[in-house]
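Our platform keeps sequence and structure together, in a single record for each protein. Nothing more is needed to write down the fold, since each code stands for a local backbone conformation. An entry from our holdings is shown next, in its original layout:
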Amino acid sequence: MASDLPMGPQLEQIHGEIRDNFRALANGFQKLDKIKDSNRQSKQLEELTGRMRECKRLVKEFDRELKDEEGRNPPEVNKQLNDEKQSMIKELNSYVALRKTYMTTLGNKRVELFDMGAGVSEPTADDNVQVASAMSNQELINAGTTTMNETDQAIERTKKVVENTIEVGTTTAVTLKGQTEQMGRIVNELDTINFSIKKASQLVKEIGRQVATDKCIMLFLFLIVCGVVAIIIVKIVNPGNKNVRDIPGLAPPAPSRRLLWAAEHFD
């Protein structure tokens, strides 16, 4: 029996706590079979998962204490204690596998895998959970080779992603540079257009002022023409009106008429 094993006080206490947690796990899974509600089953599985984490921590402590006492115990005692440790690891792994079965039944595909630590327990993604300390050298080499191959493939995928990212970044930089140059040309064209608009506005103002001046001159000339026409009409209607002066070029000067009249009488 495990309780009859020769252990130190600390090791015996840890061993007792592990066994208490195993009994709680066994009772918990028995209750889980009687629960019909999926939400309550999930909650119960969460509590059992916490128990398994605690067992994992205690098994690690048991392994450390066992290594500390290994030099003080006879070889047969160390063998019995190591066998007990392996037995506890296998029992814990059986609960881990049982939990996985229940999680699959509940439709949860994300199964939590426990990392039990080097030399204690190392659950994998396979259905048959193995412990690193229980694996042979060839199995460890194969597992390590598989992990290295998977890591190399992941690194290659990461390299490709980085290369694609750099390529996209370079293309984006070239595009941004072209757009920046295009924006610069647009700004220069806008400045030219603005200058042209200002010059056109000044030219329109000058034309407006010139047109206004021309209108004033035309109006003044129109008034002069009207005045001349009015004088001509008055002269024609009333030639004896002395208040209207002769327009230069329209009638001969008065002295010339008097001289002509005097010459006629003299003859």
Q: What stands out?
A: Confidence is low (pLDDT under 50) at residues 108-133. The two ends are 187 Å apart (CA to CA). Residues 2-135 form one domain. The helical segments are 9-34, 38-69, 75-105, 137-237, 254-266.
